Amino acid sequence: MLATGGSCAPEPRIGKLAGMVELVDHTGELEMRVEHEELAGVYAEALGALAAELVDAPGEAGSRGRRPVDLRASGRDTLLAELLNEAIYLAEVAGFVADGLEPEVLEETRVAGALVGYDHPGARPVVKAATFHGLALAPGGRGWRASVVLDV
Amino acid sequence: MSLSPHRIDEVTWELPAASRPGMRVPARVIADAELLEAIRGDGSLDQLANVATLPGIVGFAIAMPDIHQGYGFPVGAVAATRLDDGVVSPGGVGYDINCGVRLLALDVGAGELGRSLGRLMDELARAVPSGTGRGGRLELSDADLDGVLAGGAPFAVRALGLGEEADLALAESGGRLPGADPSRVSARAKERGRDQLGTIGSGNHFLELQRVERIEDAAAAAAFGLREGQVTALIHTGSRGLGHQVCTDYVRLMEPRLAGWGIDLPDRQLACAPLASPEGRDYLAAMAAAANFAWANRQAIAHRVRQAAARVLGGDGASLVRPVYDVAHNVAKVERHGGAELCVHRKGATRAFGPGRGGELPPALAAVGQPVFIPGSMGTASWVLRGADGSGERSFGSACHGAGRRLSRTQARKQVTGAELRRRLEEGGVTVRAASARGLAEEAPFAYKDVDRVVDVVDRAGIAARVARLVPIGVVKG
Fold first, then answer.
1. Does chain B have fewer CB atoms within 10 Å around its N or its C terminus?
2. How do the pLDDT tens digits run along chain A, 152 residues long?
3. For residues B377 and B451, is the Cβ–Cβ distance under 8 A?
4. How far does chain B reach from its first CA to its final CA, in angstroms?
5. Which of A133, A148, A150, A152 is the best substitution to test chain B (most B C-beta atoms within 10 A)?
6. Residue B434 CB contacts under 8 Å (≥ 6 apart), including other chains
């Protein structure tokens, strides 16, 4: 499992040493820059960073859990946007904050498996969507490098 | 390449179409020199130049003085496209479809509120859910949700009992865009919206109680039903998760098809579809449905404000709380300009029709122009303007929509905590009810441009004229 976010019983940031996330504030939006040795690690780091934006108080988190996921997209970058949008949707409708990924299938245009995370009664729907503006995911940096702008 | 617009007049700047390959029309910025300098500090002008590359764009890509960098379109932009060979871009509307503002006038003076202000704020905070995306007070059946999507504010009033028939004339487009088709809205979008009617949400959305500090145009203020010292309530919210999902769905649909339409864009978030294509028509039908959801949402909140005010202040809610107007600031609409039907994208821009288009306004407003609301931020002023006929010539009948962000959310949080900001606001006479301390700090007043300067520019540009200045006395934030 790749998990990167906190909860009342935080999981270790397994991907941390092999990856990094930089949040770059635009005037109104938020750009997430992610690097990781592994492609799956990029996805997991991005989910973890998004989770941190969705909760004010991680300490109020409930128990950890999993949500099945099976997404297809036109490429790795759009798949990243799809994953983040799935996490935004789950936070909004189910109060589930995804901060990691358990991939069973990870292909260029498909990811299937489970989003892992925790229930949180105060998840903030402050992030509207992951946009296509400047969206990128390609080999580079520590292995893989991604950029995605969130509409907040 | 750094873009340097040249001055056209005191408050208008232009980037010629030759400024960048692919621009089909020039780009224009409505700003004074100081605001322009701030605008040049982020990516707004590059994004505006990108908008000028859209197929079928006519006239100019236009920036309002509150413009700031967004994604695809900048926030605070207007672009009009031809119906026959032009495109519609979901990114030119934004994720929060029909985010907008409704102003209510209370038949009470701020001085009369006294200790009732705190009770009224408590009632409003209870009655109008904010913050979390889950759990509004209205959970709609499938049929009612489709009714809202097709019927907007009129459905909310007539079928759901959320307000008065007289409210409906006092909203842009009567609170309902024609052409809405609920079947073009995805199941996921409907799921996100199902329990969000009557909720504010978070981010920069709010419900604010204000005092009319001063009147600058007595005739227009009288037409709008405003007087000095009066309490007003400003509702700022939109189509919530439902609208976000509609935008996500159609950007996802259109982006891979661009090449097939022969469209080459400098930014993927400008993803668009020919207006004449099935995809373009479907988006307009779904967008109209989301816009109708937003109008119904503000109608539902206004109804709750009425109920809360009646509980605290006594009397009949309908006579105690009267709508002034409701305007959208994230929408694409087919309108007639310069003798042609065009698709006008307003992303962070408000329709501002002057008296010359009085036939499209309610009779009581036709002679003075459409009310335009420019919210400031907690702790600063908001403005009521009236649309002026210069907007028809300069900006496809549009004005700005707010003060415009100056600092990012992180920069704001670095300068103040939510608790400290709450203390400062309360010391300044603003009662605060906020679901999120972090969210409160991110929306600190100093994170925004000087609203008075922004309003001064649109007034000098002749696109909207000052009517009244409002100052906050209480705010409910997500």
1. N
2. 454 443 333 343 344 457 899 988 877 788 999 999 999 999 999 999 999 988 877 667 788 999 999 999 999 999 999 999 999 999 999 999 999 999 999 999 999 999 999 998 777 778 999 999 999 999 998 899 999 999 98
3. yes
4. 39
5. A133
6. B418, B422, B440, B475, B476, B477, B478
Distance CA B370, CA B439 (A): 32
Joined together, the tokens standing for residue A8 give 């009342």
* pTM across the whole model: 0.94
Q: State the DSSP string of B148-204.
A: HHHHHHHHHHHTT--S-GGGGGGSGGGG--TT--GGGS-HHHHHHHTTTBT---STT
The one-character DSSP state at B405 is B
Q: Token match 């479809």: residue?
A: B97
Question: CB-CB: which of B69, B192, B438 is closest to A28?
Answer: B69
Give the bridge partners for B343, in sequence order. B81, B334
In three state form, how does the secondary structure of B237-284 look? ECCHHHHHHHHHHHHHHHHHHCHHHCCCCCCHHHCCEECCCHHHHHHH
Which of B132, B248, B437 is the closest to A123 by Cβ?
B132
Q: Would residue B68 show up in a list of annotated catalytic residues for this protein?
A: no
Per-residue pLDDT tens for B70-112? Answer: 989 999 999 999 999 999 999 999 999 999 999 999 999 999 9
ipTM: 0.89
Instruction: State pLDDT tens for residues B244-263.
Output: 999 999 999 999 999 999 99
Helix (H, G, I), strand (E, B) or coil at B407: coil
Is residue B97 a contact partner of residue B152, using CB atoms and an 8 Å limit?
A: no
